[in-house]
């Protein structure tokens, strides 16, 4: 069995204020599992410098710093005289040498489990990294970037934040920060390949639609009907999983007047991180831009039907739930009436993966890919402005390169058809 990293991320809920002003605040922290104590400096770094970011961003950064702390433990076990960067900075020394940063960069290619396994061996004679599970380039670069920013913050905070800091100390701080930045900069890896688009093909889509319209996977119960609706909701809207979980009943606008005399049905997508009204310990991630999303009349009608039937019943059967506005709720068990979690959503999708027609890579995000690919294909065929439509539908910034990923597939398909046609012409000339 592979042990976890020594430092683990946690979400804690703190009550602040009193009386009518009392409210609960959700915080991401890093804990040392051996002692149960807070890893103070990494946690402090996140809240002093990144307080405006979402809790999910905090957790991601803290996980990368947990990876770094594990590496530090390995270094210490192999060389008892090795001094941790935090101690060095407190003593006005360089946090890590260029050589150590190069070494850490090599470790960043490996999984956290591999790192924990190596640490658990605790063999001082082991001086090379065993083969293990490689992570993708974005993960490796994120670890480097987050440690770089953390060490620069440490340097600045301890040296420049000291009482009666003099010019010599300021010069030293700038020198150290530049060394750290440049050493990390040369270790970032380049990946010019665009991320793949994992969308269902026409046969897989047909299987999906059959599964959510029958009782073969999801039974005809309150629980099963909700699961069908969630899967359909993801497919018909192209929402990210976190965005789906953050949709409220009030976000569904039936016969919304977009202009005088023109009515459509929309889902209002809101970007609202760190929402203290959300009772979930791990708040779902609502990424990028807010916006209004046009949806079909049939989907809107079924959502309203769900709100007035299955959802209302679940809320009424709950004895201790705090009032909340979120659309999709637990239909049974001790959490009945509470908003569903990311884990619940993944379980719904995992049921579809049991079908032999479904690929192993199928996730909730695959339904977003499928939706946007279909929208791009239809827009191409209708001669519409594909990029503008995908920007609005995907809620990306105007400068985003994401729409080109979905257009590219259509262009490749068209090119393949032209090549086949060319081959037929050449064959006829022989």
Would you mind describing this structure in some detail?
The structure is a single chain. The protein has 15 helices and five strands. Helix content is 52%, strand content 10%. The chain has helices at 40-49, 55-78, 85-90, 98-107, 112-121, 137-160, 167-185, 202-213, 222-237, 241-246, 297-317, 342-352, 364-382, 386-394, 402-429, and strands spanning 7-16, 23-32, 252-259, 262-269, 291-295. A hairpin with a 6-residue loop joins β1 and β2 (23-32). It has 430 residues and is mainly α. The protein folds into two domains: 7-185, no CATH class; 202-413, Intergrase catalytic core (hpI Integrase, Chain A), CATH 1.10.443.
Radius of gyration over all CA atoms, rounded: 26 Å
Helix content estimate = 40-55%
- Spatial ordering of strands, largest sheet: 3-4-5
- CATH superfamily of the largest domain, please? Intergrase catalytic core
The CATH C-level name of the largest domain is Mainly Alpha
Structural class: mainly alpha
Determine the CATH topology of the largest domain: hpI Integrase, Chain A
Count the strands?
Answer: 5
- Contiguous low-pLDDT stretches (5 residues minimum) are 126-131
* Mean residue pLDDT: 84
Give the CATH architecture of the largest domain: Orthogonal Bundle
Keywords:
430 residues; mainly alpha; hpI Integrase, Chain A; three-stranded antiparallel sheet; two-stranded antiparallel sheet; globular
């Amino acid at each position: 069995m592979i042990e976890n990293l020594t430092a683990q991320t946690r979400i804690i809920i703190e009550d602040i204020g009193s009386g009518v002003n009392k409210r609960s605040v959700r915080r991401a922290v890093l804990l040392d599992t051996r002692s149960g104590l807070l890893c103070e400096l990494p946690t402090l770094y996140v809240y002093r410098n990144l307080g405006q970011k979402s809790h999910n961003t905090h957790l991601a950064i803290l996980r990368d710093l947990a990876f770094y702390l594990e590496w530090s433990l390995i270094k210490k076990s192999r060389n008892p005289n090795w001094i941790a960067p935090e101690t060095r900075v407190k003593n006005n020394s360089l946090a890590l040498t260029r050589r150590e940063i190069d070494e850490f960069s090599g470790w960043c290619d490996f999984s956290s489990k591999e790192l924990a396994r190596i640490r658990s061996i605790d063999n001082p004679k082991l001086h090379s990294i065993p083969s293990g599970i490689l992570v993708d380039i974005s993960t490796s670069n994120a670890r480097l970037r987050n440690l770089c920013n953390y060490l620069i913050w440490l340097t600045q905070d301890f040296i420049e934040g000291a009482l009666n800091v003099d010019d010599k100390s300021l010069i030293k701080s700038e020198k150290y920060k530049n060394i750290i930045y440049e050493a990390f900069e040369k270790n970032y890896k380049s990946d010019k390949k665009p991320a793949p688009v994992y969308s269902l093909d026409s046969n897989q889509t047909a299987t999906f639609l059959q599964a959510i319209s029958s009782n073969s996977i999801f039974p005809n119960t309150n629980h099963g009907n909700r699961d069908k609706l969630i899967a359909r909701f993801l497919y018909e809207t192209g929402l990210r999983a976190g965005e789906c979980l953050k949709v409220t009943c009030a976000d569904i606008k039936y016969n919304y007047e977009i202009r005088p005399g023109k009515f459509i049905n929309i889902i209002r997508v809101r970007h609202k991180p760190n929402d203290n009204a959300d009772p979930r310990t791990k708040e779902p991630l609502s990424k990028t831009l807010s916006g209004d999303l046009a949806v079909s009349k049939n989907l809107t009608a079924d959502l309203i039907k769900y709100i007035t039937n299955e959802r209302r019943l679940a809320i009424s059967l709950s004895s201790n739930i705090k009032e909340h506005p979120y659309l999709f709720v637990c239909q049974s068990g001790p959490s009945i009436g509470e908003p569903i979690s990311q884990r619940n959503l993944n379980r719904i999708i995992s049921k579809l993966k049991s079908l032999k027609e479904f690929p192993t890579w199928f996730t909730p995000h695959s339904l977003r890919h499928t939706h946007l690919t279909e929208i791009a294909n239809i827009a191409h065929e209708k001669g519409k402005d594909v990029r503008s439509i995908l920007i609005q539908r995907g809620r990306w910034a105007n400068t985003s390169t994401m729409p080109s990923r979905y257009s590219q597939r259509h262009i490749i398909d068209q090119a393949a058809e032209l090549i086949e046609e060319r081959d037929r012409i050449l064959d006829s000339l022989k």
